[in-house]
Design brief:
Layout: H1 3-9, E1 13-15, E2 22-24, H2 26-45, E3 49-50, E4 56-58, H3 59-64, H4 66-69, E5 78-82, E6 85-93, H5 98-108, E7 117-126, E8 141-151, H6 154-175, E9 181-184, E10 196-204, E11 209-220, H7 222-227, E12 230-231, H8 237-240, E13 248-249, E14 251-258, H9 260-269, E15 286-290, H10 298-314, E16 319-321, H11 329-338, E17 343-347, H12 349-354, E18 356-361, E19 367-371, H13 375-401, E20 402-404, H14 408-416, E21 420-425, H15 429-439, E22 447-452, E23 473-480
Parallel strand pairs: 3-7, 11-23, 15-16, 15-17, 20-21
Antiparallel strand pairs: 1-2, 4-6, 5-6, 7-8, 8-14, 9-10, 9-22, 10-11, 11-14, 12-13, 17-18, 18-19, 21-23, 22-23
Helix pairs in contact: 2-6
Ligand 86X binds at residues 69, 72, 75-76, 95-96, 127, 146, 191, 215, 217, 254-256.
Length: 481
Amino acid sequence: MVLREVVVNSEIIEYNDISGCYILRPWAMEIWELLKEFFDAEIKKLKLKSYYFPLFITENVVQKKKDHFEGFAPEVAWVTKTGNSELEAPIAIRPTSETVMYPYFAKWIRSHRNLPLRCNQWCSVVRWECSNPIPLIRSREFLWQEGHTVFATKEESDEEVLHILELYRRIYEEFLAVPVSKGRKSEVEKFAGGLYTTSVEAFIPNTGRGIQAATSNCLGQNFAKMFEIFFEDENDPAQKKKEKNKRSLVWQNSWAYTTRSIGVMVMTHGDDKGLVLPPRVAPIQVMVIPDPLEDADMTAIKEVCETIVYTLSQAGIRADLDARENYTPEWKHSHWEMKGVPLRIEIDVKDLANKQVRVVRRDNGAKVDIPSTDLVEHVQVLLDRIQDSLFETAKQKRDACIEVVYTWDEFTAAVNDKKLILAPWCDEEEVEKDVRARTEGDLGSAKTLCAPFDQPDLVEGTVCFASGKPAKTWSFWGRSY
Ligand code: 86X
């Protein structure tokens, strides 16, 4: 089933009359909240504090920080009117919050005692993309967290970039069961305002496209210069004497992941019957469905069902009962399959007599009869197995798409085959631009995804697949979202 159908049929989203804007229904929000719970707890360990900065940016700031907005300008949405009157100056809606936050960082930071400053906000941002929108993957408004941190030294900043990137890997691999590669973005693909960009990259075998899953930037001192963010440095002897204009520039990072993560998960695991949810992010992990045969004692069946839900819930398993009488069990089975619930428990009179329940896995359809006495242990084991198996299956499928190429001909063949390409590269900006131009077509051009941290050996004398110059790194290439 294609993404557009799965997300609506499984009640993750509903379409809205504004193209590229989607209603996130509880099935999406509960997944988002589970991810948020993990991530928030982890960044609080790193002493991140919560903030909320305004949604609006004055035109004045946009003008002053033209360099930052350059290239992105067509995506910025503006408010020009209130009620019936035109605003004196239009107000921009944040596409990201650097320009909203950093003037205040400049105000709040005076000395090394104000550092590090670590700020995170959960909010939505608006980017008025004109290319064809895709629910959750490319939408005009999306939810994200944006972390913005400020340090006295580059070492602290470098360390945090990687720590956050590892949290993003865990969100994808341990929660969403989506394999990702950590790596560094090329000069063309990095956040232009920053020093270097790291990312986790996923790949969708069905469409043959790479997708940036989350990004963690080291901004260096570029924004500090633009926004005049200085501090008095205790380690700088000149500053001890409080000499004017001898203050140091701060080091900054910024990092984000978005509701796109849910879209990547949906595309990775979905099948003909709809959504398949990894247990760790499933709002409901076990759905109990009574199967009333004729003349069955429904009160007894329902009581057993309620006990099961209670027992599982007590053990920390997210379980629920579908006791609706106006739907058949068959309808309920396919409904909860469509919504991707990892386990279904069916109960009928025979089970009641045998003191057992039938458990059905969403991912592979396997059915097992389990004695009701040790249900919790069995369910726990099954949920863990489903989680692992979804990840392993996704990883095998992803790995099967990886193609190592050494020459331009191998490269273009692999692009046409929708592969995730791993190629030795000279790492030059002009060469990447040239590759883009030479591969331009209806499906878009081939780009770098990242240079993976996990590098195969680069044998001495290996040349770049595109330029023939000495290769400096292995890099992932492919069409992307
Ligand atoms: C780049 C950079 C950065 C904070 C992150 O990667 C992590 C979280 N932000 C985001 N970016 C823009 O700077 C940008 C700016 C404007 Cl004005 C825009 F319209 C769209 C943008 N898209 C991305």
